[in-house]
Amino acid sequence: MAKPPKDNSPITEHLAYLLAQANREINRQLEMRLSKEGVPVEQWRILKVLSDGNGHSMGELADAVLLNHPTLTKMVDRMVSDALVYRVQDPKDRRKVLMFVSDRGKALSKRLNSLAVSQEEHILESYGDKSTNELKRLLESLIDSSN
Amino acid sequence: MAKPPKDNSPITEHLAYLLAQANREINRQLEMRLSKEGVPVEQWRILKVLSDGNGHSMGELADAVLLNHPTLTKMVDRMVSDALVYRVQDPKDRRKVLMFVSDRGKALSKRLNSLAVSQEEHILESYGDKSTNELKRLLESLIDSSN
DNA sequence: TGGAAAATATTGAATATTCAACAATTGAAG
DNA sequence: CTTCAATTGTTGAATATTCAATATTTTCCA
């Protein structure tokens, strides 16, 4: 029944390709919206994760926002310069640094969230509730099955 | 019924995030396999697309392999150095360059294809035929609905 | 306890990507 | 026809990412 792609089947039959293509497109759309605030998608993720108010270590944060450690360090440097977030040494484990969002970061985060939500609404409209939910469910379960 | 995420809902409820996460994971796995041949995922895509034997312009190719034009130009430069592909000026339209795969490129492409196929087989096993096919179908239709 | 190994974050050099400008060719309008 | 705009691909500078090495702190265990 379900077969893997053959050597000579088009690249568009590969799950890896379809994921890359869909991700590229959706990410590009989100990027366009967030550009209103002059902020890359990754900074939205960082602010959103930190918005729970709890301190998050750089390692935790890197996992959560899908960035490598050095990339995150440098992006956080910029955000600290912009006074969006700040670092605190973790008193329980002094190897760690805990990241927090500033008031300015919280305000920006709110504006970014509404831009992101409005994108999701747009997707729901053009793609449909049913498909969207089913796709989310399948993606979650793919991620689960990959760990 | 199906609602978009709220401002304060976790980032994991956003389609954009789930796509990025799944793409990152699957891409990383593919990258691992292809590293046996010392080749990045993008070069597999390029070789696969060119393997139809027809010449493809840089613009076409950039779209097909999900790369920006300058990035593609530079990657193709490397592949030309490695004698995997070659450029031919399009006689019909001399602004264009047609890309072709060399014999060496074809041989490499075959080896890369089996690595990629074996990854798909692995996904089918752990994730299931049904889910895989359904996910592919939904991704295709998401991409369609985004154009 | 003492010292080696692991975990965490950062840095700097090497690499890759992107943006804006450019060159060449074609298309289109007057 | 001729000129101006649009298309195609490349280049170089600016920017961003990654890899390997480092510093610091903690954990483990002999």
Describe the model.
Chains A, B: Residues 12-144 form the HTH marR-type domain. Chains A, B: GO terms for molecular function: DNA binding; DNA-binding transcription factor activity. Chains A, B: This is MarR family transcriptional regulator. Two copies of one chain form a homodimer. Chain A has helices spanning 15-34, 41-50, 58-65, 69-81, 103-127, 129-145; strands spanning 56-57, 85-89, 97-101. By secondary structure, the first copy, chain A, is mostly helical. The first copy, chain A, has a domain at 39-127: Arc Repressor Mutant, subunit A (Orthogonal Bundle). Chain A has a three-stranded antiparallel β-sheet with strand order 1-3-2. In chain A, β2 and β3 (97-101) form a beta hairpin. Chain A starts with 14 loop residues before the first helix and ends with a helix. The relative contact order of chain A is 0.11. The model of chain A has no long low-confidence stretch (mean pLDDT 95).
